[in-house]
Amino acid sequence: MKEECGVFGIYNFEADSPAKSVYYGLFALQHRGQESAGIAVSDGKDIRCHKGMGLVNQVFDEKSLSGLKGNIAVGHVRYSTTGSSVIENAQPIVIDTKYGTIALVHNGNLVNSNVLRQELKDKGISFVGTTDSEVLASLIATSIKEKFEEAVTDTLKHCKGAYSIVIMTRDQLIAVRDPNGIRPLCIGKLDKAYVVSSETCALDILGARFVREVANGELVLIDRDGLRSQTWQLEEREALCVFEYVYFARPDSVLHGRNIYETRFHMGKYLAKEHPVEADMVMAVPESGIPAAMGYAAESKIPYEEGLIKNRYVGRTFIQPSQEIRDLGVRLKLNPIRDAVRGKKVIIIDDSIIRGTTSRQIVRLIREAGAREVHMRISSPPNINPCYYGIDTASKAELIAANLSVEGIRKYIETDSLGYLSLKHLVKAISLPGKSLCLACLNGEYPVRIPERLQSLKLFFN
Ligand code: SF4
Predict the structure, then answer these.
(1) pLDDT class for 381, splitting at 50, 70, 90?
(2) Are 183 and 189 a contacting pair, CB within 8 Å?
(3) What is the 3-state secondary structure (H, E, C) of the chain?
(4) 288 known ligand binder
(5) Catalytic amino acids?
(6) Is 159 assigned a ligand-binding role in the annotation?
(7) Residue intervals in the chain for CATH 3.60.20.10
């Protein structure tokens, strides 16, 4: 599974330039996207934007940040789920509208963006890139509503899917979540500023106080009069992506009052209860598997040890993947500690199995390092359906659990045993009602209806 995007915004009531704060916020959200980064700032008259391909600290330096002056700002880190990885698709999207210039950042995917894009093209609107976010910005720009916030809510009524959006005008900051609240978004307070962010870890880095989450179907508007809110649309149920808890969010973030590390630890404990096995050590596939491995070790009383070391500096690079790099495969990222695993019965904890190829390579690595037995435990249920809401999983044909039984997967990844956490215990570990979570890739119950054309596409293509 690949990360999605991270959004960040700040409204400073003092005329202090917030570009550096956004920079640090994006730095904390870097795990959500490493392909491009961007910041736009308003000084009340003009909006200036700087964006580029690469990591936050590759895109920005002192010079580029010092050129971004103003008191309102939005920022974005991107992993491409729709649209290719090119500068035209980097965010913020900045466009001129009859409401003035706006800058928009978005996390999520619209399931009806192709239809909306075509409707806009029919009206003579042209596009620079290929993202849903540009469709959203163009829809707002072409609204017939008089007030800007009405243009936003009017636009969103036509948009189906997942979106946490932050929009800046010259003098306002708007944060809005889709009616099901599939992607996270929270509000913080920092001295004389309001901050909005995909995750609380970005508030912490600035020393901002967590205020609350933006509710599903809520629009929050911040201007010189302060913060006000409206519920623009309420669906029957909230459906926060369960994989925020399993994999995406940083362990030090808090979502719906649940610390991510704690929930992963509990997933590991339940996993040990459901799938015990006699072994000498518990280890994790770093890094998202670590809290669950610790939970498994605590429950099973089998010692937790580090058995795999991750090269933290392997991110997305501009180097085209060559055959040589492909052959190195998982070795480029992970290296076993031979002395730790040699001669032992090992339990490896990972958060998910998507295609199975990485898991198989990891199992082979551990065996080559001398492990006597290798048992794989997964801290989520089998992933049997594609995601249409902004997570880059795989097509149905590529999802191993959609095509093989657990025993078939065990044979494919060459482990001595394999066990998945049940859906019931996943939900228990998070301790939120199952109905308030999106579990679609695990149980097929999509909170937003998926158009048939898109469904048939995702059978074979990601
Ligand atoms: S389908 Fe899966 S990955 Fe996609 S939003 Fe729902 S729970 Fe998250």
Answers:
(1) very high
(2) no
(3) CECCEEEEEEEECCCCCCHHHHHHHHHHCHHHCCCEEEEEEECCCCEEEEEEECCHHHHCCHHHHHCCCCCEEEEEEECCCCCCCCHHHCCCEEEEECCEEEEEEEECCECCHHHHHHHHHHCCCCCCCCCHHHHHHHHHHCCCCCCHHHHHHHHHCCCCECCEEEEECCCCEEEEECCCCCCCCEEEEECCEEEEECCCHHHHHHCCEEEEECCCCEEEEEECCEEEEEECCCCCCCCEECHHHHHHCCCCCEECCEEHHHHHHHHHHHHHHHCCCCCCEEEECCCCCHHHHHHHHHHHCCCECCCEEECCCCCCCCCCCCHHHHHHHHHHCEEECHHHHCCCEEEEEECCCCCCHHHHHHHHHHHHCCCCEEEEEECCCCCCCCCCCCCECCCCCCCHHHHCCHHHHHHHHCCCEEEECCHHHHHHHHCCCHHHEECHHHHCCCCCCCCHHHHHHHHHCC
(4) yes
(5) 5
(6) no
(7) 5-235
Global pTM exceeds 0.90:
yes
Amino acid identity for residue 314 in this structure: V
Q: 132 C-alpha to center of ligand 1: Å?
A: 18
Q: Ligand 1 atom 5: the closest Cα is on which residue?
A: 241
49 is in an annotated binding site: no
Distance, CA 50 to ligand 1 centroid (Å)? Answer: 31
Q: What is the pLDDT of residues 430-458, one digit of tens each?
A: 999 989 999 999 999 999 988 876 766 55
Give the model confidence (pLDDT) of 1-46 as tens digits. 555 799 999 999 886 778 999 999 999 999 999 889 999 999 999 9
Q: Is 387 part of any known ligand binding site?
A: yes
- Give the residue whose CA is nearest to atom 4 of ligand 1: 387
Mutate which of 238, 391, 423 for ligand 1 pocket (most atoms within 8 A of beta carbon): 391
CA of 180 to the centre of ligand 1 (A): 12
Q: Which tokens belong to 381? A: 């249920």
Residues within 6 Å of ligand 1 by CB? 182, 241-243, 387, 389, 391, 438-441
pLDDT higher than 80, residue 94: yes
- Assigned architecture for domain 259-460: 3-Layer(aba) Sandwich (3.40)
Question: Which of 237, 241, 449 maximizes ligand 1 atoms within 8 Å of its Cβ, making it the mutation to test the pocket?
Answer: 241
pLDDT digits (tens, 9 = 90+) for 77-88: 998 655 566 788
How many angstroms does the Cα of residue 63 sit away from the middle of ligand 1?
Answer: 39
Class of domain 5-235: alpha beta
CATH 3.40.50.2020 domain span(s) along the chain? 259-460
